[in-house]
Design a protein that fits this description.
The structure holds two protein chains of two kinds. Chain A has six helices and no strands. By secondary structure, chain A is mainly α. Chain A has a single domain, classed as Up-down Bundle (Four Helix Bundle (Hemerythrin (Met), subunit A)). In chain B, helix 4 runs antiparallel to helix 6 and helix 4 packs antiparallel against helix 18. Classes of the chains: A mainly alpha, B mainly alpha. At the A-B interface, helix 1, helix 2 and helix 5 of A face helix 1, helix 8, helix 9 and helix 10 of B. Bound molecules: protoporphyrin IX containing FE (HEM) and copper (II) ion (CU). Copper (II) ion binds next to helix 10 of chain B.
Chain lengths: 189, 603
């Protein structure tokens, strides 16, 4: 046990480590919600979501691309190509905002199918679960904006790539979480 | 230079600043940066402690108020009306007020005092000091953790002063009562404030917990392997893990409840008639909320208890001048408790129509907790056995903890059997059980910690005589208050009932309830005496003159008497041994920083 943690200490920066624990914690929240969903969906009178709004497919594309962009941004940062890094972060940001917009439109589409807050079926869970996920993306966007401002105006003295890595990891996480949630709703919802 | 320092540039910076401070003293901290928005883990710990003390007074006072009513039903206390107006019309606690008091008492004590006030305080103060770190992994998140707690406190406090009063559906806020404003005054605005406040509280706990975990795993000084960590740190570690994995689930329940309350969903609501009005909600399940709540709720009780266990182990070893008995067994049982804590939540739901077969599995898992619990008790007793015991107030509270843990654990075994629980559920027996095993026991752990580490926190001692009075009155008082409640519960007396005069069979308990109330008031007064001792001693207590007043092995006693930000002047000491070398090879104690001697015996 000693040796393992000793090595880990050399490998993993504490902030990255903190992020991983935070990810575990966020996962528990979604696990809570999705297991509530499963329990409910086995009860009588369950109403699922028949038709997944098409905007959720667009948003899937947006967030996948944004993951790609931030990964490339990270590479650019490591190779000290700061111009490229900035434009890639900006791309990520735009795609992130696009994702949120698409989610919003997707909710609208669902609402128009008469799936409102009334009831306790798949649609209502969808609003809560996708909504909370969108909030986490929004949190990531705020973090990216801070980094973006730093990249433009900061007197970049530190050459540490840790903050960018932390941001990228988080971004991939919300991306993966989205895919999981979408698949979850497609299969069980 | 420790490894952790050489790896992370930004930490080296704080280190250097610290040197400047001591060298030239030109780095001035303002009052605000030193005492208010401080990033020093020690200051943040004290902030948690003092906020917790204020909450404990408020929460304790609530219980005295409702005990007055329970002990003296029908009696009028005009002074109550002076203070609380229509909540205590005619000098009597009104039903809504009673429910509000009970709910807030539970909420405040469980979350704000015994979670934030206990692990917030001691995780903050002890983790960096005992593992040899200059501060937390992220001092910034740590500061945010306190301020989210502060925000949660302000919101919860404000809910006490609104017209419809605070939440009053019990600390477990079961829907449908908590979801429907028309069902009771306490389910109106007060309930929303409760949920928002708890959401802030959860954020605070998560930020804190993240930090504790990554600090413990990443920031240990050289030589401080995991198995050389004091048991306090192990306990804080498991506490943080429990919190990080279970609080988010409560958050998800709270969010669904907020939706039900304000946006018209029916996650928890179905087929309800309130005051003759048939509600349209359909398809929800109130039991679902109980699952979400207790998936946090049960780990939560261990979040409260584990830090106390850790501190008791440490304090007991120091004051018995003996190594803790069975370090690895202590560690293993902490681990087992942490795992089992996630697997037993449905024992709070035996009578909700839970499938009896499923129930029997939860019975088995619940009773399994008795095994690691018994191991711990055994180890504490064997640590005391033939020890060279110093009965400091901290030690007395530690011993008191063990006594309470045994008594309360035994009644847990009654409750853990689903068949017996049919009779005991929602009676005073449950109240007795959890107050002894969780409430008072964890308070004892906390008091032990405060008496023991006060010299480290403030460079002064608490007054000993007041400490002894505090201990004996609280110890005797706690048993006098809670022991008789078992009998009431066995007789079937329900909990959370304002007026039991409708049951003739409970009249026999009238005098008992009076006695409980009187003792509660005395015990509460003694706690105020402790608070006085606390604040008085911060300024006027006897000064600490030696670095290591208790003759302890752990690292916090190698820091200066009043450590600055950064804890150690110069380099962080290296660790060469476990922390429990007491009474070894004819020496009273051997600090962790001392290298292993040439022909030293093994521990
Ligand atoms: C051998 C160990 C234990 C067993 C078998 C056990 C079992 C139980 C059971 C079955 C209940 C539900 C009773 C009911 O509502 O009908 C209960 C309630 C409770 N227990 Fe324990 N318990 C044990 C130890 C603990 C410990 C160590 C703590 C806290 C540190 C604790 C805190 C609580 C609390 C707070 C409640 C009541 C919650 C409420 O309804 O408000 N228990 N216990
Ligand atoms: Cu439990």
């Amino acid at each position: 046990m000693d040796i393992v943690t000793d090595q880990q200490r050399k490998k993993l920066h504490p902030h990255k480590f903190t992020l991983w624990v935070a990810i575990a914690s966020i996962l528990m929240m979604f696990a809570g919600l999705t297991s509530a969903f499963i329990v409910k969906s086995n009860q009588a009178n369950w109403q699922g979501v028949e038709e997944m709004p098409k905007f959720f497919w667009y948003s899937t594309v947006a967030i996948l691309l944004s993951s790609l962009a931030i990964q490339m941004a990270l590479r650019a940062f490591r190779q000290r190509e700061m111009g490229k890094y900035r434009s890639l972060i900006a791309t990520t940001l735009v795609l992130g905002v696009l994702f949120i917009v698409f989610q919003w439109l997707g909710f609208g589409e669902l609402w128009d199918q008469q799936i409102t807050f009334k009831g306790a079926g798949g649609g209502q869970f969808l609003y809560v679960i996708f909504g909370l996920h969108a909030l986490h993306v929004l949190g990531g966007i705020v973090a990216l904006i801070v980094m973006f401002i730093k990249a433009f105006f900061g007197k970049t003295k530190t050459y540490s790539s840790v903050p960018v890595e932390v941001a990228a990891t988080y971004w991939h996480f919300v991306d993966g979480l989205w895919i999981y949630l979408l698949v979850f709703f497609l299969i069980i919802g | 230079m420790s490894e952790a320092l050489s790896v992370h540039p930004e930490i080296v910076t704080t280190h250097d600043v610290h040197h400047d401070e001591h060298g030239g003293g030109h780095h001035k901290e303002t009052f605000i940066s030193k005492y208010i928005f401080s990033m020093d883990h020690k200051t943040i710990g004290k902030q948690f402690l003092i906020t917790g003390i204020i909450w404990a007074i408020v929460g304790g006072l609530f219980s005295v108020l409702f005990r007055l009513q329970l002990g003296y039903p029908g009696q009028s206390f005009p002074i109550l009306e002076t203070f609380f107006g229509h909540w205590a019309k005619g000098g009597q606690i009104q039903p809504e007020f009673y429910y509000a008091l009970v709910t807030m008492h539970g909420t405040v004590l469980v979350f704000f005092v015994l979670t934030a006030g206990l692990s917030g305080t001691f995780a903050n103060i002890l983790i960096p000091l005992q593992i040899g770190a200059r501060d937390m992994a992220s001092p910034m998140l740590n500061m945010l953790s306190y301020w989210f707690f502060f925000l949660a406190s302000v919101i919860m406090m404000s809910s006490l002063f609104i017209q419809t009063g605070p939440a009053s559906g019990g600390w477990t806020i079961y829907p449908p009562l908590s979801a429907l404003g028309q069902a009771s005054d306490g389910s109106k605005l007060g309930m929303d404030l409760w949920l928002v406040s708890m959401a802030m509280f959860i954020v605070s706990s998560l930020l804190g917990g993240l930090n504790y975990i990554s600090t413990i795993l990443n920031m240990r000084t050289k030589g401080m392997s995991m198995t050389r960590m004091p048991l306090t740190i192990w306990a804080m570690f498991f506490t943080a893990v429990l919190g990080v994995l279970s609080f988010p689930v409560l958050l998800s329940g709270a969010i669904l409840l907020l939706f039900d309350r304000n946006l018209g969903t029916s996650f928890f609501l179905s087929d309800i008639v309130v005051n003759g009005e048939v509600l349209p909600n359909e398809g929800g399940s109130a039991i679902l909320f109980q699952h979400l709540f207790w998936f946090l709720g049960h780990p939560e009780v261990y979040i409260i208890l584990l830090p106390a266990m850790g501190m008791v182990s440490e304090i007991m070893s120091v004051n018995s001048r003996k190594p803790i008995f069975g370090y690895m067994a202590m560690l293993g049982s902490l681990f087992a408790i942490a795992i089992l804590a996630f697997l037993v939540w449905a024992h709070h739901m035996f009578v909700t129509g839970l499938n009896p077969f499923l129930g029997s599995i939860f019975v088995l898992l619940t009773l399994l907790i008795a095994v690691p619990s018994a191991i711990k008790v055994f180890n504490w007793l064997t640590t005391l056995w033939r020890g060279n015991i110093r009965f400091t107030p901290a030690m007395l509270f530690a011993i008191g903890f063990v006594s309470l843990f045994i008594s309360g654990g035994l009644t847990g075994i009654f409750l853990g059997n689903s068949t017996i629980d049919i009779h005991l559920h929602d009676t005073m027996f449950v109240v007795a059980h959890f107050h002894i095993v969780m409430g008072v026991a964890s308070f004892f752990g906390m008091f032990a910690g405060v008496y023991h580490w006060f010299p480290k926190m403030f460079g002064r001692y608490l007054n000993n005589t007041l400490g002894y009075i505090h201990f004996w009155v609280t110890m005797v008082g706690a048993y006098l208050i809670f022991w008789p409640m078992h009998y009431e519960g066995l007789a079937g007396m329900p909990r959370r009932y304002l007026d039991k005069s409708g049951w003739v069979s409970f009249n026999q308990f009238g005098d008992l309830d009076k006695m409980i109330t009187v003792v509660s008031i005395i015990v509460f007064a003694v706690q105020l005496m402790f608070v006085f001792n606390f604040f008085y001693s911060i300024f006027k207590g006897r000064k600490v003159t030696t670095q290591n007043p208790w003759g302890a092995n752990t690292l916090e006693w190698t820091t200066p008497i009043r450590p600055g930000h950064g804890n150690w002047v110069g380099e962080i000491p290296e660790v060469h041994r476990w922390p429990y070398d007491y009474g070894k090879d004819g020496r009273d104690f051997i600090p962790q920083t001392e290298p292993i001697g040439a022909n030293e015996s093994k521990h």
